[in-house]
Amino acid sequence: MPLTKPPPPPPKPTFDEFSTPDDFNAQFKKKETTKYMSPCAVEEKQSMKCLDVNNYDKSKCEYFFLQYRECKKNWQQKRRQLRREGQL
What parts of the sequence cross the membrane (predicted)? Predict the structure, then answer.
């Protein structure tokens, strides 16, 4: 039985601009200490809606999960950069 290589993974999708508003930093600084604010609220709602529509079958919502993860990753990188620069 010859060994064969597994097929390559599918290419990572590219996403359009994320939904983080431009003035999110100003809104974040004004918020109450206990209030939770998410810059990726739209992506979060889309992924949860997809789960609801598809009877919680995660395999059908992978695109929305990837988009949400990318948004959160980009937002955290931006926050780290702003903290280093002393703007946040």
Answer: none
